[in-house]
Write a structure and sequence with these properties.
The complex is a heterodimer of chains A (466) and B (595). With 466 residues, chain A is of the alpha/beta class. Chain A has three domains: 74 residues, Beta Barrel (Thrombin, subunit H); 276 residues, Rossmann fold (3-Layer(aba) Sandwich), CATH 3.40.50; 89 residues, no CATH class. Chain A contains 13 helices and 22 strands. In chain A, the strands form five sheets. An eight-stranded mixed sheet of chain A has the order 9-17-16-18-20-14-21-22, with helices on both faces. In chain A, strands 1-7-4-5-6-3-2 form a seven-stranded antiparallel sheet, with no helix packed on it. In chain A, strands 13-12-15 form a three-stranded antiparallel sheet, with no helix packed on it. Chain A is elongated and about 85 Å long. The relative contact order of chain A is 0.12. The mean pLDDT of chain A is 92. By secondary structure, chain B is an alpha+beta fold. In chain B, the strands form five sheets. In chain B, strands 8, 18, 19, 20, 21, 22, 23, 24, 25 and 26 form a ten-stranded mixed sheet that branches. In chain B, strands 1-2-5-4-3-6 form a six-stranded antiparallel barrel. Chain B has a four-stranded antiparallel sheet with strand order 12-11-9-14, with no helix packed on it. In chain B, α5 packs across α6, α11 crosses α13 and α13 packs parallel to α17. The longest helix of chain B has 28 residues. Classes of the chains: A alpha/beta (466), B alpha+beta (595). Chains A and B meet through β5, β11, α6, α7 and α10 of A and β1, α1, α4, α6 and α11 of B. β5 of chain A pairs antiparallel with β1 of chain B, so a sheet runs across the interface. The complex binds adenosine-5'-triphosphate and magnesium ion (MG). Magnesium ion binds next to α3 of chain B.
Chain lengths: 466, 595
């Protein structure tokens, strides 16, 4: 867009509400234009226009408006949108929530400046993601496979080990057919310092910190800044993936905090709220983040996203997990009950899903029996859940012999298949054979989701029972 | 008549809603070009001297003072040969051409003709000069793809005497093909014409449809069928299978043309269609499915205003093929995202919100959309139909929200997706308890042609399923062993129907599509087992002996082991099963007489 190159400065701030300021007497200001707010003390904050009239502009200030005064504030309209420099050298560096270095090293110099909002990928230009990523975690690899280029969030609850799981994935993620390492872009929104520190440490321990870029908008930075943080991170990720052909793993935590910032911004604009006070456009806004992943035809790189979010009161129907689930390609859901029983990773058996799994597994990718095995495990585990609620009423003794077999299967499944160590890296063969071992607790007739071929080849009848 | 080429000046910009002055005299719903990048917009409202324009592209940088030029015609779709196999955004920009112009990312202001203007089509002319014609009359044809004959129709509103008509030959969409002398003067006819997206195309008369749209999906065809020209909604929480169901229908339903609208959903799902459809073969035409498909892809990250139009763009294209006499099926995934676009735009316009922030006209708009479906007598004298299948994505999976609720008022099939079934990976997770179809009576005759007992079979099977649901409530309290043996047997039979009939794997080559005959044969077999089993129980055979019979576990596998053209294998299986049952009966009789 051709914007006036010259900067224009105004001092007429007519109002400040929440993170917004209203500037009057402006002329020719563009929608979405970048604004610098300069205070008498020399501090510079940045903002963006949300609404422009003939003589008035509404500006959201990313560092927040705390400490700004209506008088003495100068607003400079820069005639361009919010851009950040992108460069390979940004790997190994730490940035604030707006993409400015905070690691003491000098500012990044790059010829390439990119609008943080990015551009939509032409749906026709996408390449369907199909490469299996082995995370070494059975619950994921076996039943909710992660694919290179997928967006697969972790739905967690407060206190549950979502960070450990994400770190374990970042450490162990591997493509079986290639030696290429993942480049990690990590964006923290509104989390405490120790969470950020945990990630930085774990990246360092696994020796990939130099190949990672970190964007931090921690709990103590202004909330409105978080609107930009995931976008800045993804802008760099897109450069690395689509210009420099890297395979980028983007971890965004915590998307619930991001959504709260958006809610704050929306309410200060006086917009009509939708569910739970979140704006009606939350879906589209989240999509403008999550859809910035995938693969593009003719380019080698990829962006795999693992957004993490905490479900307020573990409620999966809360707007943030709900709308996320409507956009992402599945979800890894953590379950309080498993967590309380000390099972790590406490990945819920039934509500977790990977939608890209179907095309990324099977013969030539993982193994021929993978899809049937996973479907059967899901079906049997669903039955376990039904039998458990029955047992809670009639008592376990009253159950039929078959139902008891299922309960045995269920316990083993949770304790041997789902459960594993934080440092345990299972290859896919191991995961599949544990799966078959679990099914061996059940009679062959129960395995109606698996082809006869595969049963013949892999099923190990359990003789101990009879 | 609106004035053409008015130029006004922007006074404010708020997201995709732009206000301008100086456009008094322009027509409502006229298309406009906005700002230096000539972004596509539409005049949606006039408030005194202020014109309100909805902009369909990313409008960052647009500012007060920029110009707006109206085109003098409403926002329209270009209809002509070349639609088939193409993929468009919500305002019919061709995504393949956009890629050639700007690469893998869509930049703003990029423009391209929806139809290839250079391509020469081989046109077969069937009308002649001097002939008297009127709207809808077919004057020739083009093989648009190996599967689709594109009939060239006189556009609505044109009638008179053909003064000139070109001979059969090769023409582009810009060449003059014919001239008609009309009352209003000479009309110059081309292969392609514009039609306003928001205006339904005319037809002669709506009719009742008596033929089902066969989808190959057992739970739909057998239990909750949709008629050709019917409307259906698929509501369900995230991940319950709306998109997969829509894909399965787009692949296997027996419509001649498919319009697939990806409205505010994922980019990769469109890629999935683009990858698969050219490879899959339509069982009827023997040609790749892509050759009967038009795609509209306005994904969730593309401009929200264009998402609002995408539905109309799709349905207008569908009407165009209906008018040629085809049965068209529209998949709209998801109408909830469309409704949300409506909500976002209306809130920026400052409209008074009704339920959950949606504008009060939500219901009217939904009704108007579904009303564009139907079975009709076309202007060209044939019959055509549009079936509309809309996905609904209720927040939190709660069907009591406004979009689901209003939609149920305007559709006659309701395929409710069930979270519990989806969690157990029972797909399609269409609930046999909450779903319904109001077309049963209309299409009964057709199904009776497949099997005279269709209605009885369907009812008997559904009753088993409903009875199972009731019994499960009791089982939850007392356990299954407290039930009488007949009821326990019924639970087993219901399980067989669920796993062996209702559940259908979209990825299994034999199972993904079932002919009506295979559906009937499978279900009859299961019912036979139920009835015969009950007789055995009555004669004193033990339940465990029935369930231990060889072949019982196979019952649930037949769907994926027997192909559509191997019906006799179902018969053979039935014989085997029955003789096994007879054996049991004989044993018991022998046992009895032996005592
Ligand atoms: N008929 C089916 N056969 C096999 N798998 C299925 C079927 N239907 C759904 N699935 C599985 O369920 C997953 C989710 O289905 P789908 O993408 O259709 O959900 P959705 O209802 O469209 O969700 P959303 O609202 O988030 O778009 C699929 O990726 C697939 O793994
Ligand atoms: Mg979907």
């Amino acid at each position: 867009m051709v914007l006036p190159v010259s900067e224009r400065e105004y001092m007429n701030v007519a109002g400040i509400t929440g993170p917004l300021i209203i500037v009057e007497g402006v002329k020719g200001v563009g929608y979405g234009e970048l604004v610098e707010i300069r205070t008498p003390s020399g501090e510079i904050r940045i903002g963006q226009t949300l609404e422009v009239d003939e003589d008035k502009a509404v500006v959201q200030v990313f560092e927040g408006t705390t400490g700004l005064s209506q008088r003495n504030m100068r607003t400079v309209f820069l005639g361009k949108t919010l851009e950040i420099p992108v460069h390979r050298e940004m790997l190994g560096r730490i940035f604030d929530g707006l993409g400015r270095p905070i690691d003491g090293a000098p500012q990044v110099v790059s010829e390439i400046m990119r609008d943080v909002n990015g551009l939509p990928i032409n749906p026709y230009s996408r390449e369907y993601p199909r490469d299996f990523i082995q995370t070494g975690i059975s619950a994921i690899d076996g039943m909710n496979t992660l694919i290179r280029g997928q967006k697969l969030p972790v739905f967690s609850g407060s206190g549950m080990p979502h960070n450990r799981i994400a770190a374990q994935i970042a450490r162990q993620a591997k493509i079986l057919t290639s030696e290429e390492e993942f480049t990690v872009v990590f964006a923290a929104m509104g989390v405490k310092f120790d969470v950020a520190w945990f990630f930085i440490n774990s990246l360092e321990e696994s020796g990939v910190l130099d190949n990672s870029a970190i964007f931090l908008s921690l709990a103590n930075s202004p909330s409105i800044e978080r609107i930009i943080t995931p976008r800045a991170a993804l802008t760099l990720a897109e450069h690395l993936a689509y210009d420099l052909e890297m395979h980028v793993l983007v971890i965004l935590t915590d998307m619930t905090n991001y959504c709260e910032s958006l809610r704050e911004l929306s309410s200060s604009r006086g917009e009509i709220p939708s569910r739970k006070g979140y704006p009606g456009y939350l879906y589209s806004d989240l999509a403008s983040i999550y859809e910035r992943s995938g693969r593009i035809r003719g380019r080698r790189g990829s962006i795999t996203q693992i957004p993490i979010l905490t479900m307020p009161s573990d409620d999966i129907s809360h707007p943030v997990p709900d709308l996320t689930g409507y956009i992402t390609e599945g979800q890894i859901v953590l379950e309080r009950e498993l967590f309380n029983r000390g099972i790590y990773p406490p990945i819920a058996g039934l509500p977790s899903l990977s939608r890209l799994m179907k095309d990324g597994i099977g013969e030539g990718r993982t193994r021929k029996d993978h899809a049937g095995l996973a479907a059967q495990l899901f079906a049997c585990y669903a039955k376990v859940k039904r039998i458990r609620s029955l047992a809670a009423i009639v008592g376990e003794e009253e159950l039929s012999k078959m139902d008891k077999l299922y309960l045995h299967f269920g316990r083993s499944f949770e304790e041997e298949y789902l459960s594993q160590g934080y440092d345990e890296n299972r290859d896919i063969e191991t995961t599949l054979s544990i799966g078959w071992k679990m099914l061996s607790f059940l009679p062959e007739e129960e395995l109606y989701r698996i082809s006869r071929d595969d049963i013949q080849r892999y099923y190990i009848p359990d003789k101990s029972g009879d | 008549m609106s004035e053409t080429g008015l130029t006004g000046r922007i006074v404010s910009v708020n997201g995709p809603i732009v206000k301008a002055v100086g456009l008094t005299g322009a027509g409502m719903m006229d298309m406009a070009e906005v700002g230096p990048y000539r972004l596509i917009g539409e005049l949606i409202r006039f408030q005194n001297e202020i014109a309100v324009i909805q902009v369909y592209e990313d409008n960052t940088g647009l500012k007060p003072g920029d110009t707006v030029t109206t085109s003098g015609r409403p926002l329209s779709v270009l209809l002509g040969p070349g639609l088939i196999s193409n993929i468009y955004d919500g305002i019919q920009r061709p995504l393949i051409s956009l890629e050639q112009l700007t690469g893998s990312f869509i930049t703003k202001g990029v423009k391209a003709s929806p139809l290839d203007v250079d391509r020469k089509w081989s046109v077969d002319i069937t009308a002649f000069a001097g002939e008297e014609i009127k709207s809808g009359i077919v004057i020739g044809g083009i093989m648009e793809s190996e599967a689709v004959l594109h009939r060239i129709m006189i556009p609505p509103g044109v009638s008179g005497i053909i003064e000139y008509i070109a001979p059969s030959g090769s023409y582009t969409i810009e060449d003059e093909i014919y001239r008609v002398k009309t009352e209003k003067g000479i009309f110059s006819g081309k292969l392609a014409n514009y039609w306003p997206v928001r205006k339904p195309r005319p037809f002669r008369e709506k009719k009742k449809s008596t033929v089902p749209l066969i989808t190959g999906q057992r739970i739909i065809d057998t239990f909750f069928p949709i008629a050709r020209g019917g409307t259906a909604a698929i509501p369900g929480g995230f991940g319950t299978g709306k998109t997969m169901t829509q894909h399965a229908l787009a692949k296997w339903c027996d419509a001649e043309i498919i319009v697939y609208i990806g409205c505010g959903e994922r980019g990769n799902e469109m890629t999935d269609v683009l990858n698969e459809f050219p490879k899959l073969v339509d069982p009827r035409s023997g040609r790749p499915l892509m050759e009967r498909t038009v795609m509209i892809a306005n994904t969730s990250n593309m401009p929200v205003a264009a998402r609002e139009v995408s539905i109309y763009t799709g349905v207008t294209i569908a009407e165009y093929y209906r008018d040629m006499g085809y049965n068209v099926a529209i998949m709209a995934d998801s109408t909830s995202r469309w409704a949300e676009a409506l909500r976002e735009l209306s809130s920026r316009l400052g409209d008074m919100p009704a339920e959950e922030g949606f504008p009060s006209y939500l219901a009217t708009r939904l009704a108007e959309f579904y009303e564009r479906g139907g079975y009709v007598d076309t202007l060209c004298g044939t019959e055509g139909s549009i079936s509309i299948i809309g996905a609904v994505s209720p927040p939190g999976g709660d069907f009591s929200e406004p979009v689901t609720q209003h939609t149920t008022r305007f559709v006659r099939c309701f395929w409710a997706l069930d979270k519990i079934l989806a969690d157990a990976r029972h797909y399609p997770s269409i609930s046999w308890i909450d779903s319904y179809s109001e077309y049963l009576d209309d299409i009964k005759g057709w199904w009776t042609g497949v099997d005279s007992a269709w209605h009885e079979i369907r009812t008997a099977a559904l009753n088993i399923l409903l009875e199972e649901n009731r019994l499960q409530q009791i089982v939850k309290l007392v356990g299954p062993d407290a039930l009488p043996v007949e009821q326990r047997f019924l639970l087993h039979c219901a399980e067989i129907i669920k796993n062996g009939f209702l559940q259908q794997n979209a990825f299994d080559t034999k199972d993904m599509y079932s002919t009506p005959l295979k559906q009937m044969k499978l279900l009859k077999l299961m019912l036979k087992f139920f009835h015969e089993g009950n007789k055995l129980l009555g004669s004193g055979v033990e339940l465990k002996d029935i369930l231990a019979m060889p072949g019982i576990s196979e019952l649930t596998r037949l769907k994926s082991e027997i192909g559509n053209d191997e019906h006799e294998m179902i018969d053979q299986f039935e014989e085997k099963l029955l003789s096994g049952m007879f054996e049991l009966l004989r044993n018991i009789k022998d046992g009895a007489s032996g005592v």
